[in-house]
Every structure is written in structure tokens, then in C-alpha cells.
Amino acid sequence: MTALANDTFLRALLRQPTDYTPLWLMRQAGRYLPEYNATRARAGSFLGLAQNPDFATEVTLQPLDRFPLDAAILFSDILTVPDAMGLELRFEAGEGPRFERPLRTEADILALRVPDLNQLRYVFDAVAQIRRALVQDGTQRVPLIGFSGSPWTLACYMVEGRGSDDWRATKTLLYSRPDLMHRILAVNADAVAAYLNAQIDAGAQAAMVFDSWGGTLADGAFQEFSLAYSRRVIAQLKREHEGRKVPVILFTKGGGLWLDAMSHSGADALGVDWTVNLGQARAQVGHRVALQGNLDPSILFAPPQQVAEQARAVLDSFGPIAPGEAVGHVFNLGHGISQFTPAEHVAALVEAVHRHSRGLHR
User: Fold this and answer.
1) Could you point out which of 109, 282, 301, 308 has its C-alpha 20 to 30 Å from the C-alpha of 323?
2) Which residues are part of the catalytic machinery?
3) Where are the domains of the chain?
4) Residue 94 scores a pLDDT above 70
């Protein structure tokens, strides 16, 4: 087991004492960085970037070389799993991801199977290569996060065939043929669990489930069609590897209403978006799970002094952590960073979080 130079992120997820609040950013390897755009141009396309372990390693490390972040996250896409199921993923310029073979018929759905993980070997090779690249002088710089989309979020794209404003086809199927939706979700849950376990075997030291579209569901439907299947994933995950605990983060955008239920999902931490009051969330569930979040990504368009001020406000909302108190906070955005974000504003954010949080951990 390689020693970690900085394990603050892992300790915060496990609600263990830390000297400060660790920080990483959703989509931290992305289009706001000129070096990322240069690498993507060399790769020729997004899929060319994501499916090449050399390129994926390069862009994963780029934000760490620029900012003193506390975790790396695998560069990949949430739609790799349904692509391996035969839905044939492609990306259209200006349109985002599309599937050539979405789930349109009952026969399509009944034929769905957990994919052969060898089809996703490029992901696991990237995880192993990133882990090796994170080691300097025999010590690993920061932990590596693996991830997947949630069963429900994957189902949204698999049924629609692309992104949507209202997920009309997906919700029509849910309400008219719930049996078929449960079939998709059951296959997805087992596929996601196997996929994340393979990432852990390859070297991922934390796992994150992105339930990006769980918040579009009605109360009741969320618990039945999203949370139940995220629980099914989490129940199957390896929770220890290489002599360390492997914490799991569950993030449902728009899921603030269901934090209490989510805190019983088996996850070690819950990601929250910017609509959630962190202090109230801590009072509600902070004795059961750590919290991750939750700066509005749009704040990063403001001047650096306002970015720092708003970062301090998020930290103050969570509040101080007394010695021996079993609570944990990982600072993050409430969703992914925008491609239009100035990199120098990210630098101001990281500095403000690290500086201000030290006073809250004394």
C-alpha cells in the first residue's frame, strides 16, 4: 500500500478529524482549463480523450498541477456503462451525448444485460495509470475518486437517447409500464456496482454515484425508482481495499428534500447542491453521514474577492467542528464547474477554503 501524502479528503468522508476542510470540484478536469482543451484537440474528440488511458491520465492530473486540490477524480463519462451494453454512445458537437440505439421497445428492455466489463477495460486501465502517476518519491499526492452515474440517471439517457428538458419518454415509461422501468433499473444497478468494484480493484480509493436527474422525480417516485436502486448499488460495493476503507458518496442534484432517507442509503457521504442550507443539513443528517458541497458554480464568475467571500459563507454555514466531533465536510460545488469559469477564480476559491477552514477545525 502506497502512503498518502494527503488523506484529508478520505478522513473527512469517514467523519474523522481533519486540520481543514478538503476541496475538490466536480468536472475539475474540463474545458475551463486551456491545457485540457489542448489535450482534447490532440485526442480528436471527447470519446477519443475518455477512451485513451494516456489522455485520461493527462487531463486528470492537470487541475492538480494547477491548484492544491485534495482529491483527483477519474476522467471519464457517466454513459460508459450503457455504451458497453450496446446502445452505441456518440457525442454531437453542441448537442452533447446521444445513443444510436436507445431503449424503444419492450424487447429492447428485456434483452438488456449487465455488460462484459472487458468492454470497459480502458476505464480500469486509466484508473491504474492515474494511480501510478499520482505517486511522487514513493508517496501518493492525493486520493483518486472513481465514479458512475446512478441507475436512474443512466436510465434517463438510455430511454430518451439523449439529454432532455422534461424526460418525457422516460417518465411515460415509468408511469405506464413501471415493470419495464424496474427491469432497466435492476440491470443498471448490478452493472454500476460491478463497474465501480472494478474501478476499486484498479485503484480507485473512493466511489461516487452521480444521481444527476433524481431530483426531477416526484416524491414517492424518487424513493422507488432512484434511491432504492442507488441503495442496491451501494450494498454491493467493496468497502475496503489495499488496507483502507473505501468511502462512497451519493449525490442527487435537487435531492435536498430527501436527505434523511438518503442518509440511510449506506453511503458514507451525501453530496448536496446549492439549494440546501448546509447548517440545517448538518443538524439533520451530519451525525450519520458526511456532507459534500455546495457552492453555486455561478459564483465563480464573480471577482475573486466575492468568490472568496461566498466560499467563507458556505464554510460558516456548515460551522466549526469541535475536537472529537464525528462530522465531516468536503467542500465542492453544488454541481459541475462551467466551461466559462476563469481559472484564476478557482485559485481564489481553493485558497479561501483552505485558509478559512483551518480556523473552523481548531
Assistant:
1) 308
2) 27, 31, 40, 77, 157
3) 3-360
4) no
176 annotated as a binding-site residue: no
Beta strands in the chain (DSSP E): 3-4, 72-73, 89-92, 96-99, 135-136, 139-140, 144-149, 206-211, 240-241, 244-245, 248-252, 269-271, 290-292, 329-330
Architecture of domain 3-360: Alpha-Beta Barrel (3.20)
Angle at 325 between CA 324 and CA 327, to 5 degrees: 135
For residue range 98-114, what is the model confidence (pLDDT) as tens digits? 999 999 999 999 999 99
Q: What is the spatial distance between Cα 342 and Cα 301, in angstroms, rounded to a whole number?
A: 7
Say if residue 212 carries a ligand binding annotation. Answer: yes
CA distances from 255 to 187, 252, 270, 330 (A): 23, 5, 10, 18
Q: Give residue-wise pLDDT tens across range 112-122.
A: 999 999 999 99
pLDDT at 286 (0 to 100):
93
Residue 157 marked ligand-binding:
yes
Helix (H, G, I), strand (E, B) or coil at 7: coil
Q: Are residues 24 and 69 in contact, defined by beta-carbon separation less than 8 angstroms? A: yes
279 labeled part of a ligand binding site = no
Other C-beta atoms lying within 10 Å of the C-beta of residue 3? 9
The verdict on whether residue 36 carries a ligand-binding annotation is no
